[in-house]
Amino acid sequence: MQRILMKMSQEKLGEALGLTFQQVQKYEKGLNRIGASRLQQISKTLNVPPSFFFEGAPSLTPVDGVGFAEESSSQYVVDFLSTAEGLHLNRAFARIKDPKVRKRILDLVTTLSEQEESEV
């Protein structure tokens, strides 16, 4: 997500890290694990602290003394904003300054989603 926000290609990130863009793809898709030193290198390249990559991760706080804490109900928002569509939509929406236009867009999206749910 940070790479996309910075408008940096996978190829450019790979070059900065001494990797191929295919390796960057594998990291982003979660197909390959990232070691601590590589994570630190990535965080420096993207100008974020290493902790940035752990935001939204499951908490190690036990729930009723067992297991992990339950995920936040807003996790779906984080998941959506992590996609290319989510980032594009968020950027475009943020550029709209007129509150009435923003409200109309929200009404449109709400109506379309309700319509889609009723068709299922």
Short description:
With 120 residues, the protein is mostly helical. 58% of the residues lie in helices and 0% in strands.
Describe the protein:
By secondary structure, the protein is mainly alpha-helical. It has helices at 2-5, 10-17, 21-29, 36-45, 75-81, 84-94, 99-119. The protein folds into two domains: 1-55, lambda repressor-like DNA-binding domains (434 Repressor (Amino-terminal Domain), Orthogonal Bundle), CATH 1.10.260.40; 70-120, no CATH class. The longest helix is centred in the last third of the chain and has 21 residues, at 99-119. The protein is elongated.
Write the topology of this structure.
Blueprint: H1 2-5, H2 10-17, H3 21-29, H4 36-45, H5 75-81, H6 84-94, H7 99-119
Helix pairs in contact: 2-3
Tags for this model:
120 residues, mainly alpha, 434 Repressor (Amino-terminal Domain), 2 domains, 7 helices, 58% helix, elongated
Which shape, going by the Cα principal axes? elongated
Rounded to an integer in angstroms, the radius of gyration calculated over CA atoms is 19 Å
* Poorly predicted tracts of residues: none
Can you count the beta strands?
Answer: 0
> At the third CATH level, what is the topology name of the largest domain?
434 Repressor (Amino-terminal Domain)
What's the architecture of the largest domain, going by CATH?
Answer: Orthogonal Bundle
Report the sheet-strand fraction. Answer: under 5%
- Number of continuous helical runs: 7
Helix content: 55-70%
What is the name of the CATH superfamily of the largest domain?
Answer: lambda repressor-like DNA-binding domains
The largest sheet is: none
What is the mean predicted local confidence, pLDDT?
A: 82
Q: Determine the structural class based on helices, strands and strand pairing.
A: mainly alpha
Structurally, the number of domains stands at 2
Order of helices and strands: HHHHHHH
CA distance, first residue to last residue: 31 Å
CATH class of the largest domain equals: Mainly Alpha
